[in-house]
Each structure stands twice: as C-alpha cells, then as structure tokens.
Automatic annotation (TrEMBL):
<dbReference type="InterPro" id="IPR032828">
    <property type="entry name" value="PolyA_RNA-bd"/>
</dbReference>
<dbReference type="GO" id="GO:0008033">
    <property type="term" value="P:tRNA processing"/>
</dbReference>
<keyword id="KW-0175">Coiled coil</keyword>
<dbReference type="GO" id="GO:0046872">
    <property type="term" value="F:metal ion binding"/>
</dbReference>
<dbReference type="Pfam" id="PF01743">
    <property type="entry name" value="PolyA_pol"/>
</dbReference>
<feature type="domain" description="HD/PDEase">
    <location>
        <begin position="274"/>
        <end position="445"/>
    </location>
</feature>
<dbReference type="GO" id="GO:0000166">
    <property type="term" value="F:nucleotide binding"/>
</dbReference>
<dbReference type="InterPro" id="IPR003607">
    <property type="entry name" value="HD/PDEase_dom"/>
</dbReference>
<protein>
    <submittedName>
        <fullName>tRNA adenylyltransferase</fullName>
    </submittedName>
</protein>
<dbReference type="Pfam" id="PF01966">
    <property type="entry name" value="HD"/>
</dbReference>
<feature type="coiled-coil region">
    <location>
        <begin position="412"/>
        <end position="439"/>
    </location>
</feature>
<keyword id="KW-0819">tRNA processing</keyword>
<dbReference type="InterPro" id="IPR050264">
    <property type="entry name" value="Bact_CCA-adding_enz_type3_sf"/>
</dbReference>
<keyword id="KW-0547">Nucleotide-binding</keyword>
<dbReference type="GO" id="GO:0016779">
    <property type="term" value="F:nucleotidyltransferase activity"/>
</dbReference>
<dbReference type="Pfam" id="PF12627">
    <property type="entry name" value="PolyA_pol_RNAbd"/>
</dbReference>
<dbReference type="InterPro" id="IPR014065">
    <property type="entry name" value="tRNA_adenylyltransferase"/>
</dbReference>
C-alpha cells in the first residue's frame, strides 16, 4: 500500500511538473507575441536606469495562454520618471491613477499600466491605503492579493520572479495568498469576493486556509463600497462557472452581506411538506440559462441581465411560502414580491437603471407562460405576452426554458413542446402584425383631431383604450378604429365634434 502511494505521489508530481513546463511555454509564447511593445518599453526604462516587470494578472494570463492587449507593468521608477520615459514613446499617456503610482500609456493598440513598486499600509477601518512606494519587486509582490497574481517577469531578461510559488499554485489551480489570508483580507476585504470571482472565472479552488479566513471575516466586506462590490459580483456572474463562485460566497457567509436573498432561498424541507430546495433550483436555472445563451438565439458575450434574472427569479418564494391543507406548499405571487426585492437589492448594489429595470421585469414575467400549456391562450394573450416582454422577449424565452428543472423527463419534454408551440405562434402572428411595436391604430394627433381635445390626460386615456383594443383584436382598419374611438368617447361623456 505504501509503495503504491509513493508511485501515485511520483506520478502526481510528474504531472504537476509537466503542467508547469507547459505553463512556462505558454508564457514565453504569449510574451513573444507582445514582445515588440514590451521590449521597446523595457529598453526605454533600461536607458533611464530602471527595471521593468510584467506583473500580476498579465503574467497569470500569459501562463494560462490568454494574455490580452491590456498589460500591467511594475517598476522601480517613480511616477514622474515613468511619465518622462513613456511620453516620447507612447501614442497616448494619461495620469488618472498617478496618486496611486500608476501611469497609463497606449502604443499600437496595446494599453499599458505602469505602476511604481508599492509598499502600502492600511488602516483596516476603511479600504483606502496610505500609498507608499517601495524599492524591490519582492516587496511589491508580497502585498498582492493571491500568489497566482504575485509573479513577475523581468521584461529585459524574460526571467521569472516567483517568491511565493505562484507558478505551482497556478498549475494546481489553487488560490492562496502571499501573506496570511487574514492579513490580506484585513488590508482589502474585497479580496474575499475576488476569490469567489476567480473560482468562477478561472476555475481555481481556494486553499482551506483561504476558505476559513473568508468564513471568519465575511462581515468585513461591509467596509467596501457598493460600487466595488457590484463590479466584482458582475465579473463573477459572467465567468465560466458562476455557480461555483456563488456556492463559495454562500458557504463562507459572504453572500449574507452581498446578496442575502440568495442564501435566504435555502428552504428547509419539512418531513410532511416536501418541496425542492429553491436555492439549488436557482443555481441549476442559472447553469441552464448560460447553456441557452449560445444554443437558443445565440449571443457572443455572457448576458449579465439574463444571469442575474436566472439567479434571482425565485427570491420572492421564502416570503410567500404557505403550507396548504393536505401537505402542499404554495408561493402565490412570488414573482411580484421577487421583482420588488430584485429592484431593492440591485439598487443597493448601485447597478445601472437599465439593468435594474430589465432584471426585475424578467423576474416579474417569468411565470406568465405557465398558463399556456392548458391551451387557453388566445392570440390576444400572445400579443400581450410579447408586448409586456418588449425588447426582453429573447431573454424571457431563455429564462422560462431554463426554469424547467424537473427530473421527470415526460413533464420536461411537455413543457419544452409547449414553449416551442408558443414561439411558433409568436412567429406566425408576427408575420401578420408588427408585434415588436404594438401601438394603437390611431396616433395622439388623430385622437385629438377626431375628439376635439387639447393635449392632456384624456388623450392618454383614449390612446390606452385603443391600444387595449389592438391587443385584443389585432389591427383595425382606420374607419373601424375611428368608430371605436367615438364609441369610447360617448361612454365616458366626451362631446365629439360633428355628432
């Protein structure tokens, strides 16, 4: 048994060594791709007596074979010296981050951020550091968030600087900190949320001591502004595996302070009132919605709005749960309650208004389809479905399809057939009518002329009445629309000219 264990360990070590070698090859290949820019820049710094390093996420991504045209550098040169060095080399230079030691430059489509070695200190009450410049690359790297981001490559020599074994951690896909996690997270609690983001984005696993520190220190995230939390959460959600990132947030208690409605969906299953766990269901819906991003009316980029809606579509269930006689469980109007909760939470996280409106509307509409399978929908109901969804219709299609998580294959197939049929009806009616722009058959100017009205609330009421007719009956010809308008005016007591 001991001999077999030794063999397994040797095989594991050999496998890790091969991954490290492959990672180094990736890095060299990627660095060669950008070497004209990096080498030119390094030459300019060397001529001025300074060293230049590719650092942090740029090195990590180079090792993963996914280096972008946004490059991060660090140097012993002070910001004013950096400005002088790059001013004659770059196509553009900016200094918006200069108080933190960062100078930006662009050259031939490549963006470079060059930051002076940092040796910051933190008061650990807020987040804003007292900026202090350092003198060594090692001192700079130890203050970085994770070991996989604490590597550097000296550009002139293409030599690695890896004092915290970041390369080995990268090969193992392990997320650990250069200093202790407690020190790192006390300096900047946002790093806990960033850990969850890297789990989603890059497929890393946090080291046990990182998970423990996140659990013990989760409440420290309250020191971070909502805007910064929102930015990290959004990056997590558009990552490759947001489910794992969300699960880490919930497991450590971080979600209790960032998205408390998500852990709030973990409903205990009563021995007499069986129902599915809403939290697990929502994570599955999120995964299925992501699959539909590319397979159903595909799009190229991850859809943040759809993913937020999928994760949060059932957050109204805990507040609306009722145990019914006979052992049933109901969640009446949870979509209405959920839409309000979504709006409140996303506002607190400082999401843009359009994101808030779109996500809350999808949550509000996600149950609308479920009366369709009984065959009771008229063409009028289909028009209203399309009109209420508006530009969100494609996303609503995906959300509703993703919301089917039943293990009963026959039931799942029936639901998908019903939605196929609804989409076919929408397409048929759309060929006959302009469903994308359902408007009354008479515009506001015609309404005022026919009824002899000045602009005001009555015109709006008349317009609304005609729109309802349009939804119920489809397009009306002009004379029919005028007759209906006159009939409505008589009912509400408007004296119509010429009658």
């Amino acid at each position: 048994m001991g001999s077999q264990t030794t063999v397994n360990e040797r095989n594991s070590n050999a496998s890790a060594a091969r991954r490290l070698t492959e990672a180094k090859r990736n890095a060299v290949a990627e660095l060669m791709r950008v070497s004209p820019i990096a080498d030119e820049l390094a030459t300019s710094f060397a001529a001025a007596g300074h060293r230049l390093y590719l650092v942090g996420g740029s090195v990590r991504d180079a090792l993963l074979g996914r280096l972008s045209t946004d490059l991060d550098f660090t140097t012993d040169a002070r910001p004013e010296q950096v400005q002088r060095i790059v001013s004659g080399w770059a196509d553009a230079v900016w200094d918006t981050g200069i108080e933190f030691g960062t100078v930006g430059a662009a050259k031939h489509g490549t963006t470079c951020e060059i930051t002076t070695f940092r040796a910051d200190t933190y008061d650990r009450v807020g987040r804003r550091p007292e900026v202090a410049f350092g003198d060594t690359i090692e001192g700079d790297l130890v203050r970085r968030d994770f070991t996989v981001n604490a590597m550097a490559v000296e550009v002139a020599t293409k030599s690695f600087v890896d004092p915290h074994d970041g390369l080995a951690a990268l090969a193992r896909r392990t997320l650990d900190t250069p200093a202790t996690p407690e020190e790192s997270f006390a300096d900047d609690p946002l790093r806990m949320l960033r850990a969850a983001r890297f789990v989603s984005q890059l497929g890393f696993e946090p080291a046990p001591r990182v998970v423990k520190a996140m659990t013990d220190m989760a409440g420290e995230i309250r020191r971070i502004t909502a805007e910064r939390v929102q930015a990290e959460l959004s990056k997590l959600l558009v990552g490759r595996d947001p489910r794992k990132g969300i699960e880490l947030m919930v497991e450590t208690g971080l979600a209790d302070h960032v998205l408390p409605e998500v852990p709030g969906m973990r409903l205990a299953i009563d021995e007499h009132h069986q129902h599915k766990d809403v939290y697990q269901h929502s994570l599955t819906v999120l995964e299925q919605a992501i699959d539909l991003e590319t397979s159903h009316e595909p799009r190229l980029e991850p859809d943040l709005v759809l993913r937020l809606a999928a994760l949060l579509h059932d957050i109204g269930k805990p507040a609306t749960r009722r145990f019914e006689p006979g052992g049933g469980v109901s969640f009446h109007h949870h979509e209405v309650v959920g839409a309000k909760m979504v709006r409140k939470r996303l506002r607190a996280l400082r999401y843009p208004k359009d994101v808030i409106n779109d996500v809350s509307q999808l949550v509000f509409l996600h149950l609308r389809f479920h009366g369709y399978g009984r065959g009771e929908w008229t063409d009028s109901a289909v028009r209203r479905y399309v009109t209420d969804a508006g530009p969100l219709l494609s996303r609503l299609h995906k959300l509703v399809r993703a919301d089917c998580t039943t293990r009963n294959r026959r039931k799942a197939a029936a639901l998908q057939r019903s939605y196929d049929d609804l989409e076919a009806r929408i397409a048929r009616i759309a060929e006959e009518e302009d469903l994308a722009r359902v408007r009354p058959d008479l515009d506001g100017n015609e309404i005022m002329r026919i009824l002899g009205l000045e602009p005001g609330p009555l015109v709006g009421r008349a317009w609304k009445h005609l729109k309802e007719l349009r939804l119920d009956r489809g397009p009306l010809d002009h004379d029919e629309a005028v007759a209906e308008l006159r009939r409505w005016a008589a009912e509400v007591g408007i004296d119509v000219p010429g009658e």
